[in-house]
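Lab notebook: predicted structure, single chain.

Context: the supervisor wants predicted structures on file for every construct in the current expression panel, including those that have not yet been purified. This is the next one on the list. No modifications to the sequence; it matches the entry in the shared construct table.
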Amino acid sequence: MAATVADSIAAQINGDATRPLDLGGVARTFDVTNGAAITDLEISVVIANGSIVKAGGGTMRLAGASANIASGATINEGT
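Prediction complete. Output recorded below exactly as produced.
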């Protein structure tokens, strides 16, 4: 079965450079469950003031401005 645009991303966090996702100066854990979609969570907003830790067997994609995280990212499970 071929994937379509509708089922390629299960959840998204969007924004722009004027409204970053402020993590409050700490590492925040995103627990991403593996679902039917190709990408279970896509983050396409500037991530500021903290780092991310990815947990869970699902796929998380950093797109656009969020791909450059100055404070870093840790992948514990999944992709």
